[in-house]
């Protein structure tokens, strides 16, 4: 978890304590609760995976234009997309496969490679292209100055 999240969660916990007290809701010790009744719950109870999925899907549909999503993409949006995006981001920005596997809780890098290998392959190709550019620049330099 990013270090910047801790102060935010601390402030959130302070506000949550106030909300629980004002609504006479039981403090179950969970981080997130529902604040109003919805499709899957009553107000004041611990939020579930379905709550998060529904909230995320609703948010994507409401903000599809800002997010650059088509109607179909917004309808198919699901919370797990964030996990996939963060893993893809890490791999495409040079975080090694073993570290990413550990970060996301995979038992080994093979599991991560099977699911996200296509992303990793793109990173390898990009690294190869960068190496080729550096190699060509070095070749030019040595042709211009044989002492190099």
The major beta sheet can be summarized as:
none
Helical content band = 55-70%
Q: What structural category arises from helix and sheet content?
A: mainly alpha
Count of all domains? 3
SSE sequence, one letter per element? HHHHHHH
The overall strand count is 0
Sheet-strand content, in percent, reads: under 5%
The pLDDT mean sits at 86
Extract low-pLDDT stretches: none
CA(first)-CA(last) distance: 46 Å
Gyration radius from CA atoms, angstroms: 23 Å
Mind explaining what this structure looks like?
With 148 residues, this protein is mainly alpha-helical. The protein has three domains: 1-47, no CATH class; 51-78, no CATH class; 80-148, no CATH class. 67% of the residues lie in helices and 0% in strands. The protein is built from seven helices and no strands. The longest helix has 36 residues, at 109-144. The protein is elongated and about 80 Å long.
Q: Can you summarize this structure?
A:
This protein is mostly helical and 148 residues long. It has helices spanning 5-23, 49-62, 64-67, 71-76, 80-92, 97-103, 109-144. The chain folds into three domains: 1-47, no CATH class; 51-78, no CATH class; 80-148, no CATH class.
List the helices and strands and how they pair.
Layout: H1 5-23, H2 49-62, H3 64-67, H4 71-76, H5 80-92, H6 97-103, H7 109-144
């Amino acid at each position: 978890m990013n270090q910047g999240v801790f102060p935010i969660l601390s402030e959130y916990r302070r506000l949550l304590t106030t909300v629980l007290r004002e609504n006479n809701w039981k403090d179950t010790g969970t981080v997130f609760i529902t604040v109003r009744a919805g499709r899957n719950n009553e107000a004041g109870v611990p939020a579930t995976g379905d709550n998060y999925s529904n909230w995320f899907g609703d948010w994507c549909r409401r903000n599809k234009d800002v997010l650059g999503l088509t109607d179909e993409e917004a309808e198919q949006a699901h919370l797990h997309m964030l996990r996939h995006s963060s893993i893809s981001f890490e791999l495409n920005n040079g975080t090694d496969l073993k570290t990413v596997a550990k970060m996301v809780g995979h038992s080994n890098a093979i599991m991560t490679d099977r699911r996200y290998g296509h992303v990793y392959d793109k990173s390898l190709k990009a690294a190869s292209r960068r190496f080729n550019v550096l190699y060509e620049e070095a070749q030019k330099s040595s042709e211009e100055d044989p002492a190099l």
